[in-house]
Amino acid sequence: QKVTVEVLDHLEHLALVDFRDAEGVERLQKAIRFADQLREVNTDGVEPMDSVLEDRCLYLREDDVTEGNCTNELLKNAREKVEEYFVAPPGNIPLPKLEERETFLQGS
């Protein structure tokens, strides 16, 4: 199944992943082919699950705070922050224009 320019554009904006080169487009197409195999699985009569562990009793541990006052240290890991908050998604991936992507899709 071929990936259209519109689908590629939509996925890049959702995930902030750059599929600009032929290798990226091929990797996406392989992932789609792999996921398409799930359509062949017969799920008639199978009830949806909330969790794969829904038939087990899960024991929660106590939530004891052992460290604290490390906000500044944690924020050092942020690529971008506003006040004392991480900015997500970072939005640092420049996406190409639709016309530029058409050339990569034609070759795949």
Automatic annotation (TrEMBL):
Protein origin, superkingdom? Eukaryota
Q: Which InterPro entries match?
A: Asp/Glu-ADT_sf_sub_c, GatC
This protein's record includes keyword Transferase: yes
Q: Name one GO cellular component term.
A: mitochondrion
UniProt xrefs under Pfam families: GatC (PF02686)
Transferase: is it a keyword of this entry?
A: yes
What keyword terms does UniProt attach to this protein?
Answer: Transferase
Which molecular function term from Gene Ontology is one that the record holds? transferase activity
- A GO BP annotation: mitochondrial translation
* Name of the molecule in the record: GATC amidotransferase
Species the sequence originates in: Himantopus himantopus
